[in-house]
Specification:
The complex is a heterodimer.
Chain A lengths: L3 E4 L2 E3 L6 E7 L8 E6 L6 E5 L3 E2 L7 E6 L2 E6 L9 E8 L3 E4 L3 E4 L1
Parallel strand pairs in A: 2-11
Antiparallel strand pairs in A: 1-3, 3-8, 4-5, 4-9, 5-6, 7-8, 9-10, 9-11
Chain B lengths: L2 E4 L3 E3 L5 E8 L8 E6 L5 E8 L4 E4 L8 E5 L4 E6 L8 E8 L9 E4 L3 E5 L2
Parallel strand pairs in B: 2-11
Antiparallel strand pairs in B: 1-3, 3-8, 4-5, 4-9, 5-6, 7-8, 9-10, 9-11
The chains are: A mainly beta, B mainly beta.
């Protein structure tokens, strides 16, 4: 089973600042199989990025994803008020099995 | 607009059975896998299992195999998550989520239900 470890646990920033979130896998992950979600308090997760770097429908271009192998990154170029939330990375393997990281909280 | 609308919150006693639902609309139900994800209080996301309504092919996370049953009714475009004997540790929010279309988004969940809170307490 591939384990995803996200860092930092909490990121304290201000609106307009840049956020860089990390997701490290215990084994190589196919770049087509890595996604990111945002979960606001009391809401369901929302898909932001799939296949490492492709933005989901309706996601603004301040969100970008990158990485390969075991190290992946989500970058938010300028934080908006709605971006203060929890973020999860997710990977798929062909068992099939989906696993999520433990999350990074972006707080103001 | 594609929607997944889940059934309402439930309060149950240990040992009771439960069936929660996820009604889909505005897309072809049999074209997309539907997964279920657990979120225990204050915790992260755990994938439980997934079903392909087209042929009812179902796969489970080994951690949940035998603990729950996932099913789907094509006639009403609805997926289900079922327990036969609930435990206090089943207290959580349960989300259904649609697997993306074939292509790059196939291995992510592109549309989510609003979640169903299940509370199990004596």
């Amino acid at each position: 089973e591939i384990v995803l470890t996200q860092s930092p646990g909490t990121l304290s920033l201000s609106p307009g600042e840049r956020a860089t979130l990390s997701c490290r896998a215990s084994q190589n992950v196919d770049s087509n199989y890595l996604a990111w979600y945002r979960q606001k308090p009391g809401q369901a997760p929302r898909l932001l990025i799939y296949a490492t770097s492709s933005r989901a429908t309706g996601i603004p271009d301040r969100f970008s994803g990158g990485g390969s192998g075991t190290d992946f990154t989500l970058t938010i170029s300028r934080l908006e008020p709605e971006d203060f939330a929890m973020y999860y990375c997710q990977q798929y393997d062909r068992s099939p099995r989906w696993t999520f990281g433990q999350g990074t909280m972006v707080e103001f | 607009e594609v929607q997944l609308v889940q059934s309402g919150a439930e309060v149950k006693k240990p040992g009771e059975s439960l069936n929660i639902s996820c009604k889909t609309s505005s897309y072809t139900f049999t074209d997309h896998w539907i997964g279920w994800v657990r979120q225990m209080p204050g915790k992260g996301l755990e994938w439980m299992g997934i079903i392909y309504p087209g042929d009812s092919d179902t796969r489970y996370n080994p951690s949940f195999q035998g603990q729950v049953t996932i099913s789907a009714d094509k006639s009403i475009s609805t997926a289900y998550l079922q327990w036969t004997s609930l435990k206090a540790s089943d207290t959580a929010i349960y989300y259904c989520a649609r697997r993306g279309s074939y292509g790059l988004s196939f291995n992510s969940f592109d549309i989510w239900g609003q979640g169903t809170l299940v509370t199990v307490s004596s």
